Structure formats: structure tokens, C-alpha cells
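Thread: quick sanity check before group meeting

JM: Hey all, I'm pulling together slides for Thursday and realized we never actually wrote out the predicted structure for the chain we discussed last week. Dropping the sequence here so it's in one place. If anyone has concerns about the input, flag it before I start.
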Amino acid sequence: MKDGEVQGLIKDHPELSESDREALLNIADVVYATGRDRLFAATARAYAEHLSIEDLKAVLAFQSTRAAQRYREATPEVIAETMKNVGKLDFKGDVLAAYCKETGKLCDK
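JM (edit): ok, ran it. Output follows.
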């Protein structure tokens, strides 16, 4: 994600010199790491509030396995394939369309 976003910034700003692009890449690394750390800390806090110590120990034991590593490695591709295969999701629009079909009300004109 980070690399694609940064490359997009560079592409959007061809006026940047090589040293400017390098500075942008370095800043992006710092911003990414800071955001990632905030996200991890918030996630850990949320898990700690919702799971018992025993549950957390079991999760940690699983996360240390080869299966968990393969799961983490596969996750980005699985998400990308899911989004590609499921197509556009529009819950509000789908509800309105089904309501219109069933009741004849709130239909687009």
C-alpha cells in the first residue's frame, strides 16, 4: 500500500528533483512507521479489552506457527481476490433497490 501511494505522489509531482523524491521517500517511511505503530498499539489495546489472558496466550501460540505465517502472507492476495470477485458493494443502494422491488416505493425516477 505504502509503495503504491508514494509512487502515485511522485507521479503526481514530476517537478520534484531526484533529491526531492528521495526526501519524499524517506519521509513516507517515517510517516508509515508512525501510523503502523499507532495502528498496532490501538489494535493490541482493543484485543486486550475483548479477550482474556488465556485467549491472548492461545492467539500468540497460533501466531507463532508456520500456518499463521502462511495465513498472514496469503491475506493481502486473498483480500484483493475477494474484492475483485465480489464486485461493487453498495449496501444502501442494494437495500433501496430491494425495497423498491418489493414495495414500489423509494424507486429511482
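AS: nice. Helices lie at 2-12, 18-50, 53-63, 66-86, 91-103. Residues 40 and 46 are 10 Å apart (CA to CA).
JM: adding both to the slides.
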